[in-house]
Amino acid sequence: MSGERIPVCEPLLAGNELAYVTDAVRSGWISSGGEYLTKFESGFAASCGVRHGIGTTNGTTALHLALAALGVGPGDEVIIPDFTMIACAFAVAYCGAMPVFVDVDPATWTIDPARVAEKVTPRTRAIMPVHIYGHPADMDPLRALASTRRLAVLEDAAEAHGATYRGAPCGSLGDIAAFSFYANKAITTGEGGMVVTDDDRLAEACRSLRNLSFPTGSRVYLHERIGFNYRMSNVQGALGLAQLERLAVLVDARRGHARRYDEAFAGLPLQRPVERPWARNSYWMYGVVVDERAGVSRDDLAARLGAEGIETRQFFQPMHVQPALRGYGADCSGAYPVADRLAARGLYLPSGSGLTEGQQDRVIAAVRRILA
Ligand SMILES: *Cc1c(COP(=O)(O)O)cnc(C)c1O
Fold it and tell me: Which residue, by CA, sits nearest to atom 2 of ligand 1?
């Protein structure tokens, strides 16, 4: 092993995090009331160009809360990309609804709009595009289809803090959106998530459902609807506010890493991330897909990088191969060649905002040596 281990991603807590958390602890506001939380919620929503932010315990519960606020329930179907993180499908299942899979675009790795219409049925209630690895999904055709078929659009923006589509921030592109602030995301609260929306009615539904549907006003302890305790704490809000202050810096760092990787890997038998003319990719993770002509498999590349102390992660496994979803009754019978290829050949390289130039040089040298 040459030199220290290079992690795939580590949080960078180099701003006001410690000061704000200390202040929150000193003030005694450590639960779900407090100014850090409300400032983080309104500030993060504003960064997405919408009016409402509802902090949650994590990104998975943010997805569930958004689906519940949309009224998704048993008998409904929700269209999701086949290539995504499992939380998308599980959030649909928590509602008693059925996830329906659509293969992804071979270049952006986001849901293929041309294949969505064929999966719409009378039971379809919503489409959940995922801005995978920070590249926005192609929203215009999805929104056009959603409006003609009267479907809701829920963005899974868990990986897309700071990304834009035709100049508009991810999180403002559908009816409602969910973010994650898990430790490896572009900004973090340790564990945490947020629903953002410009729709007053959906925001009110999220606020109530997040808080066990506690009634407001005089009808104390009489709950009209089954709710959840998905509240974010003020301590998480303090972390989040400090991270939010540095969102642009943290995303720019990742974009800078992507530019360097792109230049260094031109000509290698690797498919690199794209940035469509209509997109600003936040490059949450710099993923590469090892070509068939490379002479090494994805697993060989990962093993050899690992032997040099360079961490990588393989891409997600598609939804249609998930035993839990088959067991739940999801239709896993179709063909999803793009998702299958990504799962077999994709991996991501060290991508965190705190990656140093020296570390990145080591990664680049190793990849070039192995694939040359
Ligand atoms: C991280 C992530 C989630 C879930 O967020 P958690 O905070 O880990 O629950 C959902 N969807 C995508 C695409 C993610 O990357």
Answer: 158
